[in-house]
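GH16 domain-containing protein, Nymphaea colorata. Tokens?
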Amino acid sequence: SGIVSAHKPPSPGYYPTSILPSSSFYDSFTNLWGPQHQSVSEDQSSLTIWLDKSS
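Tokens:
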């Protein structure tokens, strides 16, 4: 049918747009690493995180 079961996790590294994290997901990253370690695109469609030895 082409519909992915909600009970079956997607393949590693693959996240359908229908289950992208909500804004609270980005807020949690802000709390964990702070803005100096991340860059969220203006429309929040992507999130880049830099990790270093102090993380």
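The chain has a mean pLDDT of 60.
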